[in-house]
C-alpha cells in the first residue's frame, strides 16, 4: 500500500518556496494516496522559540495548509507533539543511526554555523526525528523540496539499519518525491540562496500572506541581470536570478520552463516582472483570503488538529508496538 507523509515547521509564514516546492504536491497527492501531513512543532524547538509565537505559528500554519487546499476529509492533518510516538520512536532510531551519518548533514552545518559547540543536541539529531516521523506511519512516499533530499536519504539508511539490526522487514524504505519546476525556489535578493523563512530580509521571499501591492513591489525589486529572457531553457545557464523567476512562472502556471520562454523569450524584465506579479497575485489571492478567514476560527483549527491526532495515533501506535516486539521490549 502507498502512503504519503510530509511535514512543515510552524515557524514564520508559509512562503512561495514551501508552496510551490512541497504543499502543492501534497494537495494533489491527498487524492491519489492515503496522505498524512504534520505541523512539526518538535522540530521547531531545535532552535529557540518564543512560546506565544510558537503557539500562534502552529495554528497559522494549520490555517495556511487548509487554505492551500489540504482537506481534513481527504487527509490526516495533525500537530507532531500531540502524537507521542514521534519522540519515542526517535529515541529508538537514534540508537540505529550513526554519529558519522548525522555529522555529514549539510543542514546541520549551515544552521549551527560557526558555533557548533553551542548548537542544541536536538539540532544535531533533528534528522532522526524526521526519520521517525516518516517511519512511524510506514510511509512509502515523501513529497518535499530539494533541500530535504539528504534528510530523506538518511531516513532510508536508518530504516534499512533498523531492519538489518533486528532481522525484520518492518520499515519500507521511503521514496522522496521531489517534482515540478520549483523544487528549489531561490531568494529574490540572491540567486544563490534558497528562499527561506529564516532570511532576515522579508524582500527575499513572497509570503502567502502578502497582498497584491507587496507582491508587485517585491517582484519589481527582485534582483536580475540586464539581459532579455532567452527563448530556450539553455539560455538561462549562468543566470540564476532569471532562471528562478522563470521557474516560478512555470510552476504558477503549471507549464514547463520551455513553455514560459516560448511566450516571454526576448522580453526584458521590465515587461516580464509585471506579468509574473499578475500571475502570482491571481494564484495567491484566493489562498490569502481563505487563510485570513480561517485564522479567525481558532476553535475550528484546534478541532482539525485534535481529530487528525486521533487518526494519526491509530496508525502510529501499532507500528511502535511492532518496534517494541522487534527489539525485545515485549513479546
Ligand atoms: P520546512 O518547514 O523547512 O519546509 C517545508 C517544505 O517546504 C520545502 N521548501 C522549499 N521547496 C522549494 N524551494 C524552497 N525555497 C523551499 N523551502 C522549503 C521543504 O523542502 C519542505 O518540503 N525538516 C522539514 C520538515 C519535516 C519533514 C518531516 C518533511 C519534518 N519531518 C518528515 C518530510 C518528512 C523542514 O524543516 O521543512
Explain how this protein is built.
By secondary structure, the protein is mostly helical. It folds into 2 domains: 3-183 and 298-327, 3-Layer(aba) Sandwich (Rossmann fold), CATH 3.40.50.620; 202-292, Tyrosyl-Transfer RNA Synthetase, CATH 1.10.240.10. The chain contains 13 helices and 5 strands. The strands form 2 sheets. The chain has a 3-stranded parallel sheet with strand order 1-2-3. Helix 7 (121-135) packs across helix 8 (149-165), helix 9 packs antiparallel against helix 12 (269-296) and helix 10 (240-253) packs across helix 12 (269-296). Residues 5-9, 17-18, 21-22, 40, 43, 130, 133-134, 142, 144-145, 147-148, 151, 183-185, 194-196 line the site of tryptophanyl-5'AMP (TYM). It is found in: Cytoplasm. GO terms for molecular function: ATP binding; tryptophan-tRNA ligase activity. Belongs to the class-I aminoacyl-tRNA synthetase family.
Radius of gyration based on Cα positions: 21 Å
Highest-level CATH class of the largest domain:
Alpha Beta
Quantity of strands, as a count: 5
Oligomer: single chain
**Shape, per Cα inertia axes:** globular
Poorly predicted ranges: none
CATH H-level superfamily of the largest domain: HUPs
Largest sheet: 3 strands, parallel
CATH topology of the largest domain: Rossmann fold
Kindly report the spatial arrangement of strands forming the biggest sheet.
1-2-3
Organism: Sandarakinorhabdus glacialis
Function: Catalyzes the attachment of tryptophan to tRNA(Trp).
Keywords: Aminoacyl-tRNA synthetase, ATP-binding, Cytoplasm, Ligase, Nucleotide-binding, Protein biosynthesis
Subcellular location: Cytoplasm
Amino acid at each position: 500500500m502507498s502512503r504519503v507523509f510530509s511535514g512543515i515547521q510552524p515557524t514564520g509564514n508559509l512562503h512561495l518556496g514551501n508552496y510551490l516546492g512541497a504543499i502543492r504536491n501534497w494537495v494533489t497527492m491527498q487524492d491519489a494516496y492515503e496522505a498524512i501531513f504534520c505541523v512539526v512543532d518538535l522540530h521547531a524547538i531545535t532552535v529557540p522559540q518564543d512560546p506565544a509565537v510558537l503557539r500562534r505559528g502552529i495554528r497559522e500554519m494549520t490555517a495556511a495548509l487548509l487554505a492551500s487546499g489540504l482537506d481534513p476529509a481527504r487527509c490526516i492533518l495533525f500537530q507532531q507533539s500531540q502524537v507521542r510516538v514521534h519522540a519515542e520512536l526517535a529515541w529508538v532510531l537514534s540508537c540505529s543511526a550513526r554519529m558519522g551519518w548525522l555529522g555529514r548533514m549539510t543542514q546541520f552545518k549551515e544552521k549551527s554555523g560557526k558555533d557548533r559547540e553551542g548548537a542544541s543536541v536536538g539540532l544535531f539529531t533533528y534528522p532522526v526525528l524526521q526519520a521517525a516521523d516518516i517511519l512511524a506511519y510506514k510511509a512509502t512516499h515523501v513529497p518535499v523540496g530539494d533541500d530535504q533530499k539528504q534528510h530523506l536519504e538518511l531516513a532510508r539508511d536508518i530504516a534499512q539499519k533498523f531492519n538489518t539490526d533486528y532481522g525484520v522487514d518492518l520499515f519500507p524504505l521511503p521514496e522522496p518525491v521531489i517534482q515540478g519546476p520549483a523544487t528549489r525556489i531561490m531568494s529574490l535578493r540572491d540567486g544563490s540562496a534558497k528562499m527561506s523563512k529564516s532570511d532576515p530580509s522579508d524582500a527575499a521571499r513572497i509570503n502567502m500572506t502578502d497582498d497584491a501591492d507587496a507582491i508587485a513591489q517585491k517582484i519589481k525589486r527582485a534582483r536580475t541581470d540586464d539581459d532579455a529572457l532567452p527563448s530556450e531553457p539553455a539560455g538561462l545557464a549562468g543566470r540564476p536570478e532569471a532562471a528562478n523567476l522563470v521557474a516560478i512562472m512555470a510552476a504558477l502556471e503549471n507549464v514547463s520552463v520551455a513553455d514560459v520562454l516560448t511566450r516571454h523569450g526576448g522580453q526584458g524584465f521590465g515587461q516580464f516582472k509585471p506579468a509574473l506579479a499578475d500571475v502570482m497575485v491571481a494564484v495567491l489571492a484566493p489562498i490569502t483570503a481563505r487563510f485570513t478567514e480561517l485564522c479567525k476560527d481558532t476553535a475550528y483549527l484546534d478541532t482539525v488538529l485534535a481529530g487528525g491526532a486521533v487518526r494519526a495515533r491509530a496508525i502510529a501506535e501499532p507500528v511502535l508496538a511492532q518496534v517494541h516486539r522487534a527489539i525485545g521490549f515485549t513479546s
